[in-house]
Amino acid sequence: MAPNPTRSRARRAVVAGLVLALGLSVAGCGGEQVGRSLNVSVSLDLPDSLGLGSPFDIGYTWTPEEGFEPPADDLKVFVHLVDPDGNVVLQDDHFPPQPTSQWRAGEPVSYRHWLYPPPGFHHDYIDFYVGLYQGTEQIATLRDGDLRNRPLVHTVIIRADDQGGVPVYVEGFHERETSLSAEPEFQEWRWMRDRGVVAFGNPRGPATLHLRALSPVDSLDGTQTMTIRIGDRVIGEVEATDTVPYLRRFEVPGDAAGDGAWVEVVLEVDEAFVPAQIESSSTDTRVLGLQIFWMHLGR
Fold first, then answer.
1. How far apart are CA 191 and CA 203, in angstroms?
2. Where are the beta strands (DSSP E) in 54-124?
3. Can you tell me whether residue 198 is helix, strand or coil?
């Protein structure tokens, strides 16, 4: 059955009313009683729908309207991604590249941010609430001509049947592992051996390969080079010198994926290790080359 945003939003309105009645509040999530305000509106450059697992490439445009007075202090942007049940499932609070104290009436401010969903991010649709705040104080902004504390700016439908960007681990990978004690983006991973093959649905045009991974250089000689190939073409490399998770994006030319329904991506590392060979207390005889938390290929 197709999602019903109207019914779900009505249910959320009831829940919001109960929360307000109990006197609960969250920074950047206040009720609709307007206090401090600014004559500025925001729009988002986002598709109306995305395939399952897709990252959000969000374009922000803040437009100070007539009568806008720049705040003396720099305000922070809140971005709340809300599921059909009204839960904030992801957020991206940030300072805009151009401080709000430097904004001027009639001069739009635009920039982009990538936002990456954690594993298991499966929702029929996501509502984007975007506004400004300082400390615990909500700053009302303009939406459809009205001042609102927490305006709903955009909705993205998640196409659950479109899983072309989700990786299929073909060979060279160990079983999936999980840890609920880690941050959400690091709660699930697979160890790759020294070489791994991953398949994606063919994007049929120029695309971006997103990779969140960790090179185990502390267990190696201090460096590791990871190379990504499609066929004979090198798509990108990462030279790691510390054991810190990294997030990289690699541009895939439109002709690199070929004409098949699937495209195979090969990852190779120049160094790997076996835990049992470097730790006397370990019985782990697996070859470990790269810890992969998340991958996605899409246009």
1. 25
2. 56-64, 76-82, 88-91, 109-115
3. strand
Q: What 8-state DSSP symbol labels residue 205?
A: S
| Closest C-alpha among 32, 138, 22 to residue 76 | 138
Q: What is the pTM of this model?
A: 0.82
Most confident range, picked from 29-33, 134-138, 180-184, 266-270? 266-270
Q: Are 188 and 180 in contact (CB under 8 A)?
A: no
User: In Å, how far are 46, 84, 256 from 1, measured between CA atoms?
Assistant: 24, 14, 37
pLDDT in tens, 261-288: 999 999 999 999 999 999 999 999 999 9
Q: Where are the domains of the chain?
A: 5-13+25-159, 168-298
Provide the CATH number for the domain formed by 5-13+25-159 in this structure. Answer: 2.60.40.1930
Query: Cα torsion for 182, 184, 190, 195, to the nearest 10°?
Result: -110
Which CATH number does the domain 168-298 belong to among 1.10.340.30, 1.10.287.1080, 2.60.120.260, 3.30.300.20? Answer: 2.60.120.260
Tokens 């991974």 belong to residue? 213
